[in-house]
Task: structure prediction
Amino acid sequence: MTLVVLVMASINKISKKILYLLSEYKVKPSKFIDVFKRNKCNIYKTLNFFSSNKTLKLNLDFGLENINQRESGDNNFNSVMDFLLKNDISVLNISDESYPDILKEIYFPPPILFLKGEKIRKAKFNVAVVGTRKCTAYGIEAAEYISKQLSKIGITVVSGMALGIDSYAQRAALEEEGGSIGVLGCGIDVVYPPENRYLYKDITKNGSLVSEFFPKTPPLKSNFPSRNRIISGLSNGVVVVEAGERSGAIITSEIALKQNREVFAVPGNIFSSESRGCHRLIKSGAKLVEDIDDILEEFSQYFGVCYEIDKKRKLNVDAPEGKVDEISNNPNNIDNSLDVDHKRIYEFIGYKPKSLEEIVKFTGYGIKEVLGILADLELKQLVEEKSFGKYKKIF
Amino acid sequence: MFFKIDSFALAGIDAIKVSVEVHISNGLPSFTIVGLPDKAVSESRQRVRAAIINSGFKFPMKRIIVNLSPADIKKEGAFYDLPIALSILAVSRQISSKLFDMSCFIGELSLDGNINPIKGIISMTEKAVSIGENYFFVPQKIAHQASLIKNINIVPGRNLNEVVKILCNSSDLEKYVYKSNGNKILYSNNCYNYDFEDVKGQLKAKRALEIAVSGMHNIMLIGPPGAGKTMLAQRAITIMPQLSLPECIEVTKIYSLYKKYSGELIQKRPFRNPHHTISRIGLIGGGKNPKPGAISLSHRGVLFLDEFSQFPKNLIEDLRQPLENKRVVITRNNASYCFPCSFMLIVATNPCYCGYFGDDKKKCVCSFREIRKFWKNLSGPIVDRIDMRVNVPRLKENDFIDANPGESSLEIKKRVRRCIEIQQKRYKGKKIKYNSESGSRMVNHWLEDNKEVRNLLSKISEKYNLTARGMVSILKVAQTIADLDESEIIRNQHLLEALQYRVNYDFSSLGYGKYK
Result:
């Protein structure tokens, strides 16, 4: 009986009824949404429709006791409920207050969302950062940079928990305030791909995992397009960082357009096959993103506060090397901690990775001095080694 | 009647004393050798008989039994022809000499009585010294090798007759004793075809190799195909200091067991570059009659394992103990043999299957799963024993064009020699010679009064999550850098530079990263 009380606590009655409909009577979610919309988004009328439906022969006017009496056997609904409860998975239904409004707008919102982590209830503004699984070093850098900056000003980064761009974007976002929402193409308890198991653990601290699929659903190929619709559905805009010609990220952006979302694309190397998709998007009108200003500009009317913050930041953007943030652009800050040699090397290294050979050649220091100073700068988190033996400033 | 003289057998690279005993009695003429002789030893009956007759002596038509004592050790090789022939002559009273008691003999006879060279002479001479023999009769062709060992008189002999003559005229023996003349080490500066000058760019890798050679640290070069890993590794021996005479002898001893050995004193540091299809015995040593493997053949030199990831895992694991102990003990049911193997290990590998992971020009086509599998094969205890890991990136176009050549090997060698001298001073009276061999206790001792570096170290270990072993190996490298700098103590800059040689690939967060 205690179990049942707990179920009550995390899953409300309506969610339970919807779950019951979907699991026990195999009502298709699309059918449910169809009815829901025809009933002017009134959940009670919708449920009534199903309970009065003669062909289904079901009785939804049950109390808790009824369920237990009726479904005492080893049935689907009970096992799902048990599972949700044991694994601390909560459920949002379409009529819940905390069900994201923005997701309700789309053509076919999922009637039920399984979730872990509370971020989704609190997130104010979401932007999806998606891209290919076979990313290049440049793509990783871009994804990390954009997500981190977005997260810094409180925007939540939505992505698909896949390898490559998705996971880099999410990891970077988790480090800052905004956090991240991961949308899964499998049951919420299924860790796919297994490489991301730590991300699965970490994300619940400052983010959410979301799935419309019943627990234990394997990551079927057909699940991913419908997952993509939730990614774009949850977000106000979709940033495609790196995508091949026929990447899933391109599909996401197409769905986003249908859902009336903004689509952004990060340009890449013209010779890289992994940037083809992005370039095609830009050609057909997606906004080119160099910095998050380009993203925020589009939302300035909805999102004044964020843009204010951004404007403050913008005051600093005038260094010739490119983008500079508050910490590294503050000359006093560096003056205090670095001596002449350090400063000279630090200043020579830009945001474009420089090889050791270049540093030695142009600064005139010996290799051993350079190596020592670079290690020191790395320790102070001013510089990092990117790809093979190339150093760059940290943003 | 009975007669006995001393000779030697080889067990691994060490020699053991063997007494050649002859008993001669009346009866049907026969000639038997006992004492676990192999085919070559048994056949010496025919050689001895022919050599005795062709040298103008009489072969006794009696019952002859030769025993090689100790009788339970297998004797191999045609070492005993000369001692057997001499003892037959002595026991049949054709010759007599008071020298027999203080001499030992070794040599293979040809049918006309000439004495042919044998292998392993240096080990045998060493053994002869240690058991206190005065005279060692050796084949003339290899007398110069034997004479490398001091405190014994080497008597070269061209043929059986000459040896008999020397033995019988013991009064003017001194004039026959070998006088070494040409055995000075030829300090040639340019005995290699390679030079560090040829390497363009790759400043970090070059510096790393200099440090590695100075402290005999094992080093791993990681880079895409064509970056120059093999080129760098081949040049490592060119900056190693010349072998000292005892070291030359050690190396020659090992090579004298090796098939292709020409008989000369080896003065070049060995550089072994086995292909990854090498067998276990080929790498570690062994076989029915254990022979040194590639690790022993690279003693005092460099063992370079190119395409390290292609080596079978069990072979890589086999390297563990030899790396730690600097010797390998091969045990077979009859005996165990110990080969020294104090080598510097250089391994080179691509960063992934396709080779381009981390390269910014060419894209890596491996999946993360493949990359992780790749590194899983490499990682583990063996990589832990490699103090330095350096990435060797591909050069950019303008790095090639750089007109001024790099430092030559000779210049680098000077610094290395100086650094090694400093280490020798530090480790005087201790078993070890190089910084890389020092243990964690000694490393902690270096830091006792060095607060500054200790503080930095704790900062570093916090940031990079260093293991205890990682910390010790960074400190060892830092000490070598300090020695190269001729600094009394480790300073911050030395430790920071050492940190640069700990690249690793961290896949817990998926992708290129490094934990040092």
Summary: Chain A has 21 helices and twelve strands. The interface with chain B takes residues 134, 136-138, 140, 163, 167-168, 171, 195-196, 198, 272, 274, 353, 355-358, 360-361, 367-369, 371-376, 379, 385, 387-390 of chain A (CB under 8 Å). The first strand of chain A starts at residue 90 and ends at 93.
